[in-house]
Amino acid sequence: LSPLVCWQIAVRACFLGFAFGCGLLLSAGRSAWRHFGWYMCSLSLFHYSEYLVTAINNPRSLSLDSFLLNHSFEYNLAALSSWVEFTLEKLLFPELKQITWLSTVGLLMVIAGDCLRKAAMLTAGSNFNHIVQNEKSDTHTLVTSGVYGWFRHPSYVGWFYWSIGTQVLLCNPVCVVGYALASWRFFRERIEEEEITLIHFFGEEYLEYKRKVPSGLPFIKGVKVEL
Predict the structure, then answer these.
(1) Which residues cross the membrane (predicted)?
(2) Is the domain 3-212 a CATH 1.10.3720.10 member?
(3) SS3 call for 213
(4) Mind listing the pLDDT tens digit for each residue in 129-174?
(5) Residues 214, 151 contacting (CB under 8 angstroms)
(6) Are the beta carbons of 52 and 68 closer than 8 angstroms?
(7) Under 8 Å CB-to-CB from 29, ≥6 apart: which residues?
(8) How does pLDDT run across 33-52, given as a tens digit for each residue?
(9) Residue extents of the structural domains in the chain
């Protein structure tokens, strides 16, 4: 890696560590921002661990993009929208942001979703990549064990419920609905695109796997195969 890239990686890692530390301070306090502190810790840990697990699992695909901080304009807009909603509702309806049991449910969703995603990444090993691959490499194999025996797309299932959980944690009713709809649409299209590639790579082996194991996401069956 060039010195510039190393510097860019260090800056991002330090930023996420700083955000996690700020989140811990807010979480330990008794202010109304305590639940936002939980959110900050969850968000920074998610992005840092995306890079870390990729570095362990598939270092050849590692890049600055592995942090997923610049995932897409829509992703950044969604994050900004959740912060704006939280702040406005905290000012206008402060009692809405103090429902501890609901925020706890959201935190559990976040933890479970992120653990499922990281388990999927670790199980897939070098087969996992943040970018849908169009060409099959020599080491590319169909993974059907572990969490892939529960769902065909466990990393997407984990991310789906993690994203919704962040908004439940923040008690953001508007963004809960918005995140659910936007995430569902994104993963529906992503799964169809990915399954076309997987059928091309593995043929009948993947079709048999597809028949036996659900996608894991509600009302998403994946690409339709004409018989």
Answers:
(1) 6-26, 159-182
(2) no
(3) coil
(4) 887 777 777 778 999 999 999 999 999 999 999 999 999 999 999 9
(5) yes
(6) no
(7) 37
(8) 999 999 999 999 999 999 99
(9) 3-212
